[in-house]
Amino acid sequence: MHRDWGHAALLLLPAMVLLFAFTHMPAIQTVIDSFWSTPRGRRPSVFVGDANYRRMLADPIFLKAMSNNAVYAALTIPASIALALAMAIFVQGRIAGRAFLRMSYFTPTVLPLIAVANIWVFFFLPGFGLFEQIREALGLSPQNWIGQPATALYAVTVVSVWSQAGFFMIFYLAALQNIPDSLREAAALEGTSRWTFFRRVTWPLLMPTTLFLSVNATINAFRTVDHIFVMTQGGPNNASMLLLYYIYEIGFRFWDTAYAATLTVVMVAILAIVGLGQFFLMDRRIHYK
């Protein structure tokens, strides 16, 4: 018995070392750095206590990034999951060109995020973009979708939903194929409508997958930086500034590593709280068998 435990520990040791060295140690160091100042040239860092956290609470750009991220998450999470489920249900049925449709829905997932952002920049381009050509054909006035504060964040939201819904669809498609056909046959014999079968049978059986995807969608909502970097760079006037992009600017553009570490600690704490909350609240309503 002890020999088996020893073999198991030796097999897990390389992965545990890598996990500790590249995940846990940087996280611990980030928490430590958040209580120190940023070294400048020959001036070493000094312990500043909670000064970085007090600065954060008084930072209007941080507060704007947090509010933007809340709106962004509230839109992208349910929209991505709902669109993924709708696509999975559609391509599960026996329809012509089903394989092509599945490939088409999944294609945005395999594209590089920078390429996706550049494609959508062309769509949103004022005067020449695809959407503007359609609006011009309909006799509507020009619209600068990513160049004005009222629409910049929502334009980035559309891109995010489009790029990740196909990935989520694969998980829903696999879950739908695991639902026994006997349940559908029994429902058909009872004269159950499709909506009732979905609400009473399909949706409850999909809840484990929905929990997994909701956690992943939450993480994606707080780690979006590629689309922002290419499309808006947080503008105009911080209208599309998200937390991770703000951390990037503080850490790599202004080289204030201590303050960037503080913002990172807050972001990780938010993700941990939201993720655990989702798990414990939804897990009670999920049936795994």
Descriptive account of the structure:
With 289 residues, this protein is an all-alpha fold. The chain has a single domain (59-283), classed as MetI-like fold (Orthogonal Bundle), CATH 1.10.3720. It is 74% helix and 0% strand. It has helices at 2-33, 51-57, 60-92, 98-110, 113-124, 130-137, 152-177, 181-189, 194-222, 226-231, 243-253, 257-283. Helix 3 (60-92) packs antiparallel against helix 9. The two termini are 31 Å apart. The mean pLDDT is 85.
Topology:
Blueprint: H1 2-33, H2 51-57, H3 60-92, H4 98-110, H5 113-124, H6 130-137, H7 152-177, H8 181-189, H9 194-222, H10 226-231, H11 243-253, H12 257-283
Helix pairs in contact: 1-12, 3-4, 3-7, 3-9, 4-7, 7-9, 9-12, 11-12
Main location: membrane
Family: Belongs to the binding-protein-dependent transport system permease family.
Protein name: ABC transporter permease
CATH 4th-level superfamily: MetI-like
CATH class: Mainly Alpha
Helical segment count: 12
Number of strands: 0
Note the main attributes of this structure.
single chain, 289 residues, mainly alpha, MetI-like fold, 12 helices, ABC_transporter_permease, membrane, transmembrane helix, transport
Task: Give a short summary of the structure.
The protein is mainly alpha-helical.
